[in-house]
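Hi P.,

Sorry for the delay on this. The queue was packed all week, but I finally got your sequence through. Input first:
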Amino acid sequence: MKLAIIAFTRSGSMFAKRIRDVYEQKGNACVCCCKGKDAAGWGLPILDSSLKEWAGEMFRECDGLLFIGAAGIAVRTIAPFIVSKASDPAVLVMDEQGHFVISLLSGHLGGANGLAREIAALVGAVPVITTATDAGGRFSVDDFARRENMYLDSLPLAKEVAADILEQRTIGLYSDFEVAGPIPPELSIQKKDGLGISISVDETYDPFPRTLHLVPRIAVLGIGCKKGTPKEKIQELVEQVLRQNQLSGHAIAKVASIDLKKEEPGLVEFCRQWDLPFLVYSAEELSEVECDGGFSESSFVRQITGVGNVCERSALRAAGRKKLFQRKVARDGVTVAIALGEYTVNFG
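Then the structure:
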């Protein structure tokens, strides 16, 4: 997580430094500064640009913004940059005395509610959460989707789910995955009519007349290709394999290959356009991978790369599994295999 903090008084700067130090110790990136000489202290840099410029840059780069000062300043500053609850970062406000931490924007999908609780616990403040489901202690589907790293396919349906829950109407639940622990009382696996939630990597299956799809991001694409293969050829085969397996593109978490392909232009461009992390492994690392049922080996590939199969081995290595969801498919100098990371639904 990357958090941006700005303070407007010397007292606020003290809290900013305290929060920054804790979050950095946890391995998070934290951009921290103060506004004006009156707020200087505790080793924080003074902001050398306008507040609006700072906010615009942080909106693009960070997962969360914390204003330590008046809520009005935060509201006026972020207003030009608000786009959608699906993409806006978490925005919080804390008073300079550390009494309250307010979840101001993107409480659920952006994680502001959870972040407000974390920071409040850290400084001994009261978290102020105003979203209806949280205020009523009810299940929140968008907060659940964010926490479980799922793609939520319809914000309008998510709003309807929240509205029905607040009206004490039960929502149906379908899951392709094992559910660990109790299911929230607002949901029922017995209910088959009306509005329901589907947890699956298949976005085309509608178990309810009106289905809100939650897609866990657990799929790993293992890809191999000939040198100079264009991005379009890679994308064509990936899309073909996804369709054949009824696997949503939103389920893809990462792409993996051999380190010989770490700068392969077509593969790098594919990952960039699909906004996917690209992991590479050495031939030695890939040779250590095991697969239930064995691999589709090629002596030619072994001669070139040092292992007899790149796509299957890299998919399993990145997923931490021994079982393939889709074995090697080859076309036009491209090979694709898919592995699914281990996943269990947890409402806790």
